[in-house]
Amino acid sequence: MSFPRYPEYKDSGVEWLGAVPVHWDVKRLKNIASINMGQSPSSDDCTQEEVGQPFLQGNADFGENFPTPRSYCAVATKIANADDILFSVRAPVGAINIADQAYGIGRGLCAITTAKCSSMRFVFHALHLMKYELFSVATGSTYEAVSTDQVANAVCFVPPTDEQTKIAAFLDHETAKIDALVAEQRRLMELLKEKRQAVISNAVTRGLNPDAPMKPSGVEWLGEVPEHWDLMATKRLFRLVVEPAPDDNDHELLSIYTEIGVRPRKSLEAKGNKATTTDGYWMVKKGDLIVNKLLAWMGAIGISDYDGVTSPAYDILRQKIPLKPRFYDFLFRCGILFTEFRRYSRGIMDMRLRLYFDELGQLLMPYPPIVEQQEIIEFLQTELAKLDELGIEAKRAIDLLQERRTALISAAVTGQIDVRGITK
Questions:
Q1: 143 shares its domain with 204
Q2: Residue 380 and which of 107, 137, 321, 386 are 20 to 30 A apart at CA?
Q3: For residue range 336-353, what is the model confidence (pLDDT) as tens digits?
C-alpha cells in the first residue's frame, strides 16, 4: 500500500534526514519532554518479595507488553510514573517500553515524560527512530551506553500536536496489524519446534514401523519399544575418553551449545570467547559425543562432526560397539531425556548440577539393529529438513514484517508520508 506525501517540504538542517514538511519543527528531545535518568539504590534496600516500590534495573525487566519487575525497593531514588516512556540507555541502547504504573528505575534506564504540547504515543514512536542516532554516539568499554545529555539532545521532528495524535493513532493501528502477523509467525515457529521434537522422539523410541510388535522397556521415560530392540546401559554403548591434546597444538577448538550442538569456537571469537591456550584440552574425533556436564540437562550434549579439541570441563564419549552415533545424537538432544539427565546430575542447585559419566553410564538406552538406526537417521534428516525450511520461511517473514514496521514508523515520524487523511 502506498501513502500520499505532504504537498510542500523544507530542508530540515539535519544531513541524514533531508527534507521535512514545511510546517514541522526540528527540535531536541529535551524541548518536548523531560528526561529522568535512573539510579540504582543500595542492594540492601531491594528484595524479591513484593514489598515497596516495584523496581526495574534495566531492559531485562521489560515484558512482552508491560514491564515485569524482578525486585522491589523500599526507597527508590528515581521514579518512572505511569505513561512515562522507559528508554534503555545501556546494554543495549534503545530498548523501549511504557510504564503501566509507577516504578523505581535503575541506572540502565531513563524515564521520558512528554510535555503537554506533545503526544506521548508520537514521541514513543519517534524514539524508535531517535535510538539509531543514539547508537552512533554510544560509548563504553564493557558495554555501550549514552548519557542524559545525549538522550536530551537527540533530534526529533515535531508536527503540530493534533497532527502528532493522528500520526500516533495511524502507527498504533498499523503496527498492531504487523505485530499480530509477527505473533502468528512466531506461533508457527513454536509449533514447528514442537513438531520437530515429537517426530524425533517418536522415531528414536518407537521406530518407523507403526505395526511393529511392542514390549515394555521397564524404563519410565521410554515406555514401550519395538519388541526386537535391545536395551543397553550407556556405558555399554560408549566409553569415556580422556586423551589430552599435545602442547602448542593447532587443532580446531570445539564447544557444545544447547541450541546448535557442537561447533568450532572460532566463529564466536569476535564475541570474546577466545581461549588463550588449548594445551591440556581433550582430543575429539569425528563421531564422538561431547557432554557438557554442567548443562547436559539443558541439552548441551551432542555429536561432533569435527576432529579437534575441547575443554577438559566436558566429557568425551566414544562408541564401544557397532552403532550410529547420529542416532544417539537425536535421542540425547530431542528433549525426552532432559529430565533424566537432571535427575542423575549431582549438585545443590540448578546451575551447579553436573552429570558425570558414572551416572550417565547407568541409564538404559534403546539399541535398535544397526540397519534400523541408519534408516531412522535418514528418515529424520529428510523430515527435519522440511520442518527446518518452514521455520526458515517463517523467520524470513518475521524479518520482512519487522523491516516494514521500522520503515513505516520512520516514514511517518519524519513526515515522508501524510497520514492526516487516512481513515482506519
A1: no
A2: 321
A3: 999 999 999 988 766 678
Name the residue range of residue 170's domain: 1-8+160-211+371-424
Q: How far apart are CA 259 and CA 302, in angstroms?
A: 10
Same domain, 239 and 328: yes
Do 152 and 165 lie in one domain? The reply is no
Report the share of the chain in percent with pLDDT over 70: 95
Q: C-alpha angle 37/43/47, rounded to 5°?
A: 105
- Chain segment 230-241, per-residue pLDDT in tens: 999 999 999 999
Query: Of 424, 412, 413, nearest to 3 (Cα)?
Result: 412
The per-residue pLDDT of the chain, averaged, comes to 90
Q: Taking residues 55-75, what's their average pLDDT?
A: 81
In a domain, 269, yes or no: yes
Tell whether 13 is covered by a domain: no
Examine the pLDDT at 272 and tell me if it is beyond 50. no
The structural domain count of the chain equals: 3
